[in-house]
Inverse folding.
């Protein structure tokens, strides 16, 4: 889940149709969380792909009344040819049951946000603080473990 390590800006839009058009016409930025009001909740769509094609994968999130976010769908948008098809998947996502509570970092990371990273130096997987890892300017999902950071950046 690359999106959990990225810092987002909320872009309020009118509908899931607008989200699909913005994505398929490449008029949305990788850091935008496209938010629309569904029948029961606010839904957000975020880029979840790797740095070479961030919108290849899309995570659809549902915001609960308490402000928490739950993932309801993961869509391989690279296989979807038209905005109409993508909108159909968003419609289905609005009906889906949430399956995982997730974090969505908006505007500024705080000190309590941790995700799994792969160390860009040694390849180890580690749990890291997003705010701290941003200092290394790595792609989302990559960072430097404490051991490598101490030897490489001291």
């Amino acid at each position: 889940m690359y999106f959990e390590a990225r810092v987002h800006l909320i872009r309020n839009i009118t509908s899931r149709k607008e989200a699909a058009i913005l994505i398929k016409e490449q008029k949305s930025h990788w850091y935008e969380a496209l938010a629309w009001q569904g029948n029961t909740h606010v839904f957000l769509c975020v880029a979840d792909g790797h740095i070479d094609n961030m919108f290849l994968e899309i995570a659809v999130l549902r915001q609960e009344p308490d402000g928490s976010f739950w993932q309801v769908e993961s869509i391989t948008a690279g296989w979807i040819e038209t905005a109409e098809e993508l909108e159909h998947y968003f419609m289905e996502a609005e009906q889906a049951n949430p399956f995982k509570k997730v974090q969505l970092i908006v505007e500024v990371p705080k000190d309590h946000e941790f995700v799994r990273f792969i160390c860009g130096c040694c390849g180890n997987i580690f749990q890291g603080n997003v705010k701290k890892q941003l200092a290394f300017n790595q792609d989302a999902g990559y960072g430097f473990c404490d051991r490598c950071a101490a030897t490489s950046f001291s």
Summary: Residues 72 and 99 are 6 Å apart (CA to CA). The first helix runs from residue 16 to 24.
